[in-house]
Amino acid sequence: MELYLTDLSPNCRRVLAAIHHLGLEGETEIQNFNLFAGEHQTEAFKAINPNVKVPVLVDGDLKLWEANPIMIYLSDRQNAETFCPSNNALRIEVLRWMSWEVQHFNRALGEIVWETVAKQVFGLGPVDEEKVASGQENFRRFAAVLEGHLADREFILGDTPTVADFAVGSHSALALHPRSQVPLLEFPRVLAWLERMEALPAWQKTAPQAPAEAAE
């Protein structure tokens, strides 16, 4: 298999962490792009992913883009029932939380950390405080949902991590960055869950050199 990614993306981190969690490092050739240098802007890569974005997994004739489907595919390939259950009810739960993170939780979180962390590292101008405030408002709304859900469990589907946690928690390094301004102290269960994610062996192996470098 070939995995195309960049060091600068939470979406890539979740897939790479899944590779480690599933023990697929030895079967996966990593193609690491420098997006700022435009290394992905080639006709060959456009033929693999017409969106010209990463991550992308190539496995034989399969060319699969988007992080969440890649993680599900890898899990099914390995018959990793604990990590990504095939039971209909549990699979729907996985898909529900994956959809939720894309549409709500990580969209709000991403708006905050882009302004407060990533822009500063990349020299892209001052913080837009209105966008930070908007992101914080949305984050509080959706973090409250996760806070309640974690009242009686360690991870999203129970007491062991699944692909749902890898998806929802993909921005953990940025959220925990001291400059992030993500109001995590208001949500102690969410904070503790993010810290549990960072303690997972697969998550530790994929930690960015500096958390600020986890922005796409």
How are the elements arranged and paired?
Elements: E1 2-5, H1 10-21, E2 29-32, H2 43-48, E3 56-59, E4 62-65, H3 67-77, H4 88-122, H5 129-149, H6 163-168, H7 172-175, H8 188-199, H9 201-205
Parallel strand pairs: 1-2
Antiparallel strand pairs: 1-3, 3-4
Helix pairs in contact: 1-3, 4-5
Summarize the structure.
With 216 residues, the protein is of the alpha+beta class. The chain has helices at 10-21, 43-48, 67-77, 88-122, 129-149, 163-168, 172-175, 188-199, 201-205, and strands at 2-5, 29-32, 56-59, 62-65.
Report on this model:
This protein is α+β, with helices and mostly antiparallel strands and 216 residues long. It is built from 9 helices and 4 strands. α4 (88-122) runs antiparallel to α5. It is globular. Residues 211-216 have low confidence and may be disordered.
- Helical residue percent? 40-55%
What class do helices, strands and sheet pairing give? Answer: alpha+beta
**What is the topology, as strand order, of the major beta sheet?**
2-1-3-4
Low-pLDDT ranges: 211-216
